[in-house]
Specification:
single chain; 201 residues; mainly alpha
Length: 201
């Protein structure tokens, strides 16, 4: 990459760390300039506005999420193995973010009632992940791993609820064993939808 591209990438890496710690709304050009030992105008030269910077941080976070959770899971066989991989990798990522925070989750709290481009970008990313989970559940049904009467949307809803509970208990309450409880909940959820043939293997 050219020098300007390298500087921009470095700014985004630092900005992502700040946003993970302080939230997207806590990310300011002044704070970022201090961290980078740059002038505010120097940071602005790479991003047209604070909102543009926040959106680029979201895109970088989404890219990391895809690289760590989605794409590796796509290497697993269609069906139950892929669904289990998606959930376990998701839990692993959330567990690693306990100290800093998940931008999808913190961003939802920040922008649940705040219209605008950042909210739309965030909503689009979360919906894309939920859609990927839903398609994976549908494929598990098609493969005969889950019962034909499985409600994919309901299953995704419950999976999301488990991860939200994990983040809340591990980060806010700091309750030991939260990861294990999330996994137990997922295993129970799978068992309730699993076909007799798969359950007996």
């Amino acid at each position: 990459m050219r020098k300007g591209e390298l500087t921009r990438a470095a700014i985004l890496d630092v900005a992502l760390g700040l946003a993970s710690r302080d939230g997207l709304e806590g990310l300011t050009i002044g704070l970022l300039a201090d961290k980078m030992n740059m002038s505010k105008s120097g940071v602005f030269a790479h991003f047209g506005s604070r909102e543009d910077l926040q959106i680029e941080v979201l895109k970088l976070y989404h890219h990391h999420f895809e690289q760590e959770v989605f794409y590796p899971s796509m290497q697993e066989p269609r069906g139950l193995s892929r669904l289990q991989s998606m959930f376990s990798r998701w839990v692993k990522r959330v567990t690693m973010e306990i100290a800093s925070g998940c931008i999808y989750i913190s961003g939802a709290a920040e922008y649940d009632d705040r219209p605008g481009a950042i909210r739309e970008e965030l909503v689009g990313m979360v919906r894309a992940w939920q859609d990927a989970l839903r398609r994976c559940v549908e494929q598990a049904v098609e493969c005969g791993h889950l019962r034909p009467d499985t409600d994919p949307q309901q299953m995704v809803y419950e999976m999301y609820g488990l991860v939200l509970a994990l983040h809340h208990d591990a980060r806010f309450i700091k309750r030991p064993g939260s990861v294990g409880r999330a996994q137990v909940g997922f295993d129970r959820l799978l068992e309730s939808y699993r076909t007799v043939e798969v359950a007996s293997r």
